[in-house]
Amino acid sequence: MTATQTLLTRTGARPRATTHGKDRPLSVVASTGIMIAFAIYFLVPLWWLIVASSKTRADLTSTPGLWFSPDEFALFDNLAALFAVNGGVFGTWAWNSLLYAGIGGALGTLIAVMMGYALAKYDFRGRNTLFSIVLGAILIPGTALALPLFLVFGALNLTDTFWSVFLPSLVSPFGVYLGRIYASASVPDELLEAARLDGASELRTFFTVSLRLLAPVLVTIFLFQFTQIWNNFFLPLVMLQDDTLYPLNLGLYTWNSQIYLAPELRLLVIVGSLVAIVPVVIAFLMLQRFWQTGLAAGSVK
Amino acid sequence: MTLTADGPTATPSQTRVHPPERRRVGHHIPSIIALTAPFMLLLIAFYLIPIGYALVQSFFKIARDSPYGEPREVFAGLEQYAIVVQSAAFWEGLSRVGILLVTMVPATIVLGLVFALLIDSTLVKGRKFFRLAFFAPYAVPGVIAAIMWGFFYAPTLSPLPGVAESMDLLGSRGIMFGLANIVVWTVAGFNMLIMYSALQAIPQELYEAARIDGAGHLRIALSVKVPLIMPSIIMTAVLSVIGTFQLFNEPQVLKTLSKAVGLDFTPNMLVYNTASIPNYNLAAAISVLLAVITAVLSFAFLRITQKRAFA
After folding, report:
1. Which of A36, A205, B189, B301 has CA 20 to 30 A from A25's CA?
2. Distance between CA atoms of B190 and A33, rounded to whole angstroms?
3. Residues B86 and B68 in one domain
4. How many angstroms from the chain centroid is the CA of residue B139?
5. Are A261 and A236 found together in one domain?
6. What percent of chain A has pLDDT over 90?
7. pLDDT by residue (tens digit) across B138-147?
8. Contact B157/A266, CB-based, under 8 Å?
9. CA pair distance A1, B83, nearest whole angstrom
10. Are residue A69 and residue A156 in the same domain, yes or no?
11. Helices (H), B158-174
12. Do residues A41 and A179 both lie within one domain?
């Protein structure tokens, strides 16, 4: 299976040449130039966010935008102000985002892997139909579902609740897809057979043996789903009125839409954005290896 | 790890107990149900039922017997769809995402491919740094990316006021580029990573032959690497097509900063604002029509490319 091959490659089985006698200096300079130019493009907005977060309101407009203020490093004052404003509503949003994305992502990952595992390891009637439904669902983006979900929750009088945002985000068809590919490549049938002969039930085997073999793909799916829920905006926007249920995204959006009327919010939006992305960026970069494993498993035939 | 230890001792009896494949599965039906039911129930509750309900809603309308009478839902057939099809706002929104589809989507794919090829080649030093730098923006939610770039675009707030002034990306002429830039900034690194992962799975020996024949980097990239990672390129293209049609977060944020972004700038913004009126039936009809157009286009695309992305 390609997925196994990919995993082998990921662990570094393929040696890479670092230098090349034939690299022409001109191509090296041109390529390096392109890469540096784009690195600046990708990093400048993030750099600005850090710099701006460390300034006082006065310095934000009076000092050069892309360098720190010579007078004052106000990052910690700004953070304190951010978490204090409006009775600490920002902290509530951050906590909500963690609940929606953290718990939702973890539960959704387990549910998706169970499904993917069943599709990979059991040959039952209707298996292909179920898999086709899953593939179809991958092509339906979250934004297309926001209004339909709002209509259903509205009919049941359940909008503006924690569950109206939490429950729909548990579904991850892409997770099922990855889980299936990975399970068929990395959980050997002989192992399941041996467990059966030992008298272990199928579910017990799944939870005690197979799940351990599936650990890498669990991390990948979790990362995918965590980001997806963390980025979710349309669904909470239509569902929620009560701002104590908002995720960070929605809270920052409501602040940002008032910055022309209430300029004091400007700095809070900047510092809040930094707080909202720093944990995700760090988690992303640290777990990047897992991303690639999953992406490769999903995209190489 | 008792299981693997018991494996060899169990082997002699295995031939005797081992039932044929089909029959064996029969015993597992309760387990299969237990493994699949949670996902399928959630999929039904939060995908299939909402889609079905929106479809049903799109065939109804609100009617009143008299101007101040009690509102009732009555069957309207295709009336809502007729309204959508005749609405200029719908087509204008669709043409805006159409323009992005033929400009921004190719840009994200070409950039992703160029980055992936350069990082996979030996031409550039510090490849790991570049990979991380290009991918980092993908971790930034679309809403926050739009907020951040919004600051850069607004001449009064921008850290580069001169540039913001001259480019005027929140004005009616610059806004499409401003919007496309935010999406490219977020997505290009993701596309790069998908394609780079695919490149890494190609065995090195495949290049050796080409190299011995004297092929340069560009030649190897175009005639060996690109064809081999075509499935990944197609996958990123399909995801980009869907994402573009469904564009909502970024323009919705820009709307609060720019007069050039109206309530119906993209089809999904039209859905949201129609639902806010509230006119749920009409919003449902727009939503359904948009989903159908998106699905038809992405299926057509997969057909043309022979479904090589999700084989």
Report:
1. B189
2. 21
3. no
4. 15
5. yes
6. 52
7. 889 999 999 9
8. yes
9. 51
10. no
11. 161-167
12. no
- State the pLDDT at residue A240: 96
In a shared domain, residues B171 and B64: no
Q: Residue A156: its chain B contacts at CB < 8 A?
A: none
Read off the tokens for A77: 């004052």
Letter for the amino acid at B59?
F
Nearest to A48 by CA among B180, B138, B144, B192: B144
**Do residue B3 and residue A195 have CB atoms under 8 angstroms apart?**
yes
Identify the three-state secondary structure at position B61. strand
| Cα A297 from Cα A116, distance rounded (Å) | 14
Predicted local distance difference test score (pLDDT) of residue B224: 85
Same domain, residue pair B149 and B275:
yes
Coil vs helix vs strand at B16: helix
| Prediction pTM value | 0.86
Report the residue from A32, A114, A252 with minimal CB separation from B38. A114
pLDDT, tens digit (0-9, with 9 covering 90-100), for B19-55: 444 445 667 888 999 999 999 999 999 999 999 999 9
- The reply to whether B205 and B139 lie within a common domain is yes
Nearest to B240 by CA among B311, B188, B193: B188
Residue A184 lies in a domain: yes
Alpha helices in A139-172 (DSSP H): 142-155, 162-166
Mean pLDDT of B95-110: 95
Inter-chain residue contact A138 with B4, CB threshold 8 Å: no
Chain B residue with the nearest C-alpha to that of A136 = B295
pLDDT at B6 over 60: no
Domain membership of residue B263 (yes or no) is yes
Those of residues 166-185 in B touching chain A at CB distance below 8 A are 185
> In this structure, is residue B12 part of a structural domain?
no
Domain of residue A163 covers 77-299
Q: Highest mean pLDDT: which of A165-169, A255-259, B254-258?
A: A165-169
Torsion over CA: A58, A64, A68, A72 (sign):
negative
Does the residue A10 lie in any domain?
no
Strand-pair partners of B62: B73
- The residue among B231, B224, B196, B189 whose CA lies nearest residue B116 is B196
Residues A101 and A178 in one domain: yes
Q: Which of A73, A108, A132 is the last residue of a domain?
A: A73
Q: Among A10, A41, A73, where does a domain finish?
A: A73
Alpha-carbon distances of A262 from A56, A265, A266, A267, B256, rounded to whole Å: 16, 6, 8, 11, 13
Confidence at residue A293, expressed as pLDDT on a 0 to 100 scale: 63
Q: Check CB contact under 8 Å for B42 and A252.
A: no
pLDDT at B183 over 70: yes
Query: Do B74 and B99 lie in a common domain?
Result: no
Of A58-62, B57-61, B268-272, B290-294, which range is least confident?
A: A58-62
